[in-house]
Design a protein that fits this description.
single chain
Length: 127
């Protein structure tokens, strides 16, 4: 039997991380550990010590934003193929387009529903 996938949520807002965890619980997806990071640098530190199957990251954060995190992951052999779903409030397509070109697996726009998140993640985690 396949092990339940671990997820890493990266967002500088503790409230948003808690909302994401609540929404993930509502999706009824079989998930393992859900880890949290406040920015890209913290996310990289967590990834060093944990096996994670998918990263769910905000784009706009201090210290290291979601685009910089994505760039770091795609340049690291051990995380090159790690699925990364970016969460954005971006009205402009430029940042989303940049993320897609860098290798973002997918993205969701805030506000999102549990159904939208479930559908997006279920497709990625079933691969």
């Amino acid at each position: 039997m396949k092990e339940a996938p671990n997820l890493l949520i990266v967002d500088d807002s503790t409230a948003i991380r808690k909302i994401l965890i609540r929404v993930l619980n509502q999706t009824n997806l079989a998930l393992g550990e859900v880890l949290e990071a406040g920015d890209g640098k913290e996310a990289l530190n967590i990834l060093e010590g944990h096996h994670v199957s998918l990263v769910l990251s905000d784009i706009n954060m201090p210290n290291m934003d979601g685009i910089e995190l994505l760039r770091a992951l795609r340049n690291a052999p051990q995380w090159h193929d790690l699925p990364v779903v970016l969460i954005t409030t971006e009205g402009g397509q430029a940042r989303v387009q940049e993320a897609v070109e860098l290798g973002a697996t997918s993205y969701v726009r805030k506000p999102f529903s549990a159904d939208q998140l479930r559908d997006k993640l279920a497709a990625l985690l079933s691969k």
